[in-house]
Amino acid sequence: MEPAVTSGARIGDRPRPKKNYLNDGKTFKSWALTVDHKRIGIMYLVGTMIAFLLGGIFALLVRLTLLTPQHTMFGMQITAETYNRFFTLHGAIMVFLFIIPSIPGSLTNFVLPLMLGAKDVAFPRLNLASFYLWIVGAVMAVASMIIGAVDTGWTFYTPYSSSGTSSTVTLMTAAVFVLGFSSIFTGLNFVATVHKLRAPGMGWFDMPLFVWGMYSTAVIQVLATPVLGITLVLLMMERVFQIGIFDSRIGGDPVLFQHFFWFYSHPAVYIMILPGLAIISEIIPTFSRKTIFGYRAIAYSSVSLALLSFIVWGHHMFVAGQSQLATVIFSALTFLVAIPSGVKVFNWLTTMYKGNISLEAPMLYAISFLMLFAIGGLTGIFLGTLSTDIHLTDTYFVVAHFHYVMMGSTVTAFIGGLHYWWPKMTGRMYSEKWARIASVLWFIGFNATFLPQFILGSRGMPRRYYNYLDQFQPLHAFSTVGSWIIGLSLFMTAAVLLASLRKPMDAADNPWNGTTLEWKAASPPITHNFEDTPVLENEPYDYRPKAVTH
Amino acid sequence: MSTETHTEAHHGGPKVYTANLFALLFLTIITVAAASFNFGSANVVIALAIASVKAILVGLFFMHLLWDKPVNAIILVAAFLFLGIFLMFDFIDVGSRVVFAPRNTAPMDNATPVPDSMNPLKAAPPRPLDPAPATEEHKAAEEHK
Amino acid sequence: MSTTTTDVHAHGGHDEHGEHNPYHQHHFATMEQQFDTSKIGMWLFLATEILLFGGLFVGFGLMQHKYPREFIEAHEHLKQMVFGSPFPLYGAINTVVLLVSSWTMVMGVNAAQTNQQKKTVRFLVMTILLACVFLAIKYVEYEHKFHDGLLPAKYYAHQSEDLIKGTHGYATFFAFYFMMTGLHGIHVLVGIGLLGWLVMRARRGAFSSAYYTPVDLVGLYWHIVDMIWIYLFPLYYLIS
Hints:
- The structure holds 3 protein chains of 3 kinds.
- By secondary structure, chain A is an all-alpha fold.
- Chain A is 65% helix and 1% strand.
- The radius of gyration of chain A is 23 Å and the shape is globular.
């Protein structure tokens, strides 16, 4: 491969274009009816951040209730029904309104076409429709909270959800159905975009690894989400018409609901983690100034994670009444999933080895990710092993495991990615000092909250309980204080990022010296992304010393 | 004009489509006829097999998959494949469930005494479940008595 | 793998005659790229339809496994007496109707591809008529069921000697029957709407060999609707 030739640092070379995607049309209508993927990405960002705040408030309420063993908060008694609503709404909002839509809707929408050298996604109007479906689903979900908040757990297990509770299950499931279609259309758009809108000369193995990760995510979104759709329809039918599929009193099988539910929801957790993994694959080579180690291995691992995610769902049902044969098969298959995850972690570490590492905020989040994802992934193996799962299932061990992967990994990567692409999206640099402090606080707060929960779970503390034995109080109290530190760190991060918007646009086109195509666009980009279709000049993540010509 | 249209017009065409229709109608007759024989548990398999042949004919010829780029066919096959995975594992579960009955309910000789309230053989019967929602079936059965 | 091709002009949508195709969306380099992408998009959507309906098929299959006797007996109610013996008449007719409508649909696409505007309209209209016949037969079927009290779920009220007391298999069977044929029927209705829209546009000369994408895509949708019925028919009407 001949050494790539570029024209050297372009930071000062090109004047900032006067019109960019932000000021090109300033009316409400130009935003409300936009088909620009970048504007849609910003709208998704604002929406999902509001959802994150709402879900976070419910999380704080859960942790406050658990500060004392007797389900009191500020002296008031919290009833069991109220507590059920707290954790259900926390889970449902976080899963359906935040984690699943956030990275694909906001960061990917913004960055993916730029990385491919495209002008937009394949179906820009469908992109806008996805966003409005998210809005409709969000409004329906909030309405259901106000009318009669759901108390079934975010998993809606039957028969409680079909014939036991009088809360607004039907409205909430309808909301999730709508949100499901938002997710399907986003995934559909990205699959088509990656197949057909790459810049000339960009083959599949010239694409950034972020694109591989998002492509894998999109495949899951398209294939798995419809089954959630039909599950929710069947649940609503059971609830309203008693069709007799999930409620054993009228001839149904509650375990069947769990099969239907988890066939989507297990791949769904890979919809949540793959974008996070994708972001880390971008941050690490950039801040190690080194070519990524094992590009193809990482690309293939993304796709294999997506495919393997479809054949392990029964590991959520080991003690639910599933047959022993099925249980054993699912457990064995679950171990396979660790392999591609491990491949990624080792490849990233090898990338960093002897790299020229700089510790800006995105890199701090990426390094946190490596540690938290390792813990989250390994504890998943404990849960996938039958003999240990018998004791750990439905305890706080499970709660800690999934928070380590969903929050310690995905949200960490999301915040890191937000900082990484912030100059591209807004044209401003945030305050590096305060961002670093916030990232350290995040790491401390997160571990303080969730590490004790592994111990609580292994000692027998069940999940979804609003009271507990006195001996668990010290760890619970520690965890609650940790949740306050998380809150503080997120507040600080929000302040850091929002404060940067008050500065004039001063960011360079390529502040981190990244090698992928989005850094060739202006910061912030013009509406059509590139003046001329970009030409692919180098291999992805090519940090070899370049011949500089003037 | 895009080159696509020229190739598309050369593929397919009324003759191919009409032949395909007759093949599909023929298979419909076969499947209805086959249903009048009882092959036992193979009934479903035969019916689904014939249906699958029909589906493949529709896909290859009417939907142009035979002449399209492979990505379209891969998408269709993937959908069926994952549906098949869902079906397969569910049947593995449902088909291999075993109902366990307790085998030994006699008390052990030197066991720690169990308080009556915790002894399932001596405790008060559990509060009865709320009655199942009355279906029309039950109401009709009641009226018949 | 990297090349230094000259940049592809945004005006790649020009056809041979140098005119700009009015349907060319500018984030695509060429009309061919746009057409291929639209097709991929449609296939992805159809994949979601297969998984959506597929979920219902799986549920039906598992419930049949749970209540084999009731389900098989309930199947008999879907047959009509023809020359003195039970035969799935309505189901078979509907199958033929949909297969022929698939043929008229693909003939319509072919006509659009080959610049035969009048034929395009004719075939699309035929497809709509066949779809209406399908729905009419479904209506007749449903009417008979309601009359016999073979209603879904909690409304099930059929009186008959073959009723197996104490089980819920019948109510569940008819719940699935109405859900699946109902959802399929809704898709047929939506298809009629889409076909009507195509007829309106075709009559105004919108489709030609330079641009027939909507006809092609609606055709794909219609064939999936047919494909779902191809599986539905034997499972509901032919198993005994």
